[in-house]
Amino acid sequence: MLPLAIVLPWIAFLVYWLVGALKTNRTSSRESDASRYSVMALLLSGYLLLFRSELGIGPLGRHIAPPTRALFTAGIALLWLGVALAIWARYHLGQYWSSRVTIKEDHQLIRTGPYARLRHPIYTGLVLMTSGTAVAIDRWRCAAGVALILIACSIKAKKEEAMLSQEFGDAFQEHRRHAGFLLPRLW
Prior knowledge:
By secondary structure, this protein is mainly alpha-helical.
């Protein structure tokens, strides 16, 4: 059973996500189902490794570092930082958010809040959340899960970039020069 300190931030994130999903614009174009399911398979595999202790077979079940209270606390702090970033980004994206790669009706290119420095702050938030969880749980299976989730988020972000580039052309290319992919561009 996972400690409440790990479960609570994930619950806060999921509740915000479910409520926010009720307020989105209609979709005008979207990725194919085959494209979506390949990324979903990677994400599901990553989250299973992160949260299912019975998948810690052999070396995957071992600690990465000697467990300490400081390591656990650092993981929880990173988890909450990721939740905050993902919620902040989701708030700025507003009615243009979707769980799949889409262009919404009357879609606008968002460049406010975290989108001023990051092109995919929701994915950055998810990677921070999973990394913090992995640090707090401190098992090799969690590190493998984070790697799969990072790969899935990167693939999905590249698909979004292709769609946004097609939709917004030069405006999106300008945005790319000022905002980093998954790490913020500070200069």
